[in-house]
């Protein structure tokens, strides 16, 4: 039985890898300028010094390498970060309805980003906005953990309540800033960022977030065994030699790093960290040795597909990717909740 499940998980993992590759190729190929799939593959492989013998139009190479591929890779990185962060949070809280935003990471990033946009600080440097959002995300998780420690209550439920309280406070701050925006331009910029988007992402953005997200993913996967044991409860995990407190702090820090880096360059995007790991868990169980990497791959594919929909649904207009994720993710999540309660999954 174990061998059969392991084989099925491996097959599904390979399928997720193929889906991600396919979505990346499709996303690079379609748009206002449609590019044949063969040319897209050839252009990308050429960057790895692999020759395919397919003639490539120079204009198409510029479109893919300078415009589309950086945007797609940022989307894949952000989606992967949100997916694996959601799986970690659901494991830590032993609750499949939890996502990274519940501990204030997204709200912290959003508040600092809104402050930057409110005062028009983006005119000084393009990096002020992502840097402020990243600092806000780390500051929020630090505040949540600090209040949790001061409460002298070690239950994970208390941490969730503290996170919800900080979220409400930060949301109120954002509401004040939005209501008092000095000009319509600042207001539009704030609303645009809060809806999430991948417009004008460049290779600089890829280089900025890829080390943080990839290294954090690898380190988080190292703790998959500990997460499995913590599902049994803190006392049982301690009895098997797991340092629950240290493990929890490390995983919360890695989640904050990944989510903060992602939100810093994409704006607020919901449902990815909730729907993707929850779906995979319902279908294949809660073994984090498989769940964590599968959630990363699933989240990456989900967000890249959402970006395709955002660009192509109402041409020539673009719908913000955060809106698309909510439109697609909410019905899927509700369906999964209903089916899980009926015992179908």
From TrEMBL:
Regions that span the bilayer: 12-30, 72-89, 101-121, 127-148, 160-182, 202-223, 249-278, 290-310, 317-338
Keywords in alphabetical order: Cell membrane, Membrane, Transmembrane, Transmembrane helix, Transport
A cellular component annotation (GO) from this entry: plasma membrane
Keyword Lipid metabolism (UniProt): no
Any Pfam family the entry gives: FecCD
Membrane topology recorded in Swiss-Prot or TrEMBL: Multi-pass membrane protein
GO-annotated molecular function: transmembrane transporter activity
InterPro entries linked to this entry: ABC_BtuC-like, ABC_transptr_permease_BtuC
Biological-process GO terms, alphabetical: siderophore-iron import into cell
Location of this chain's protein in the cell: Cell membrane
Family named by the database record: Belongs to the binding-protein-dependent transport system permease family. FecCD subfamily.
Protein name as catalogued: ABC transporter permease
Organism: Virgibacillus pantothenticus
Taxonomic lineage of the native organism: Bacteria, Bacillati, Bacillota, Bacilli, Bacillales
């Amino acid at each position: 039985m174990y061998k059969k499940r392991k084989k099925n998980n491996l097959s599904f993992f390979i399928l997720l890898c193929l889906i991600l590759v396919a979505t990346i190729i499709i996303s690079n190929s379609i748009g206002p300028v449609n590019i044949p799939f063969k040319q897209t593959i050839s252009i990308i492989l050429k960057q790895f010094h692999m020759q395919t013998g397919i003639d490539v139009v120079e204009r198409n190479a510029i479109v893919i390498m300078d415009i589309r591929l950086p945007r797609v890779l940022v989307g894949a990185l952000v989606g992967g970060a949100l997916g694996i962060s959601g799986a970690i949070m659901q494991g830590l809280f032993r609750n499949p309805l939890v996502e990274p935003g519940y501990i204030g990471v997204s709200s912290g990033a959003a508040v600092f980003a809104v402050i930057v946009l409110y005062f028009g600080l983006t005119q000084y440097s393009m990096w002020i906005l992502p840097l402020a959002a990243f600092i806000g995300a780390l500051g929020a998780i630090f505040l949540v953990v600090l209040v949790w420690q001061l409460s002298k209550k070690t239950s994970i439920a208390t941490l969730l309540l503290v996170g919800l309280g900080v979220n409400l406070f930060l949301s109120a701050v954002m509401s004040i800033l939005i209501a008092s925006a000095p000009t319509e331009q600042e207001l539009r910029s704030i609303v645009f960022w809060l809806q999430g988007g991948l417009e004008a992402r460049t290779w600089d953005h890829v280089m900025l977030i890829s080390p943080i997200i990839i290294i954090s993913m690898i380190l988080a996967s190292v703790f998959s065994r500990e997460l499995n044991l913590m599902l049994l409860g803190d006392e049982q995990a301690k009895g098997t030699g797991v340092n629950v407190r240290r493990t929890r702090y490390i995983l919360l820090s890695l989640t904050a790093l990944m989510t903060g880096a992602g939100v810093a360059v994409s704006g607020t995007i919901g449902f990815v960290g909730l729907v993707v790991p929850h779906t995979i868990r319902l279908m294949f169980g809660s073994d984090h040795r498989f769940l964590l990497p599968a959630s990363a791959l699933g989240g990456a594919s989900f967000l890249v597909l959402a970006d395709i929909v955002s660009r192509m649904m109402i041409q020539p207009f673009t719908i913000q990717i955060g809106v698309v994720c909510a439109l697609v993710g909410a019905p899927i999540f509700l369906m999964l909740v209903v089916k899980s309660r009926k015992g179908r999954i």
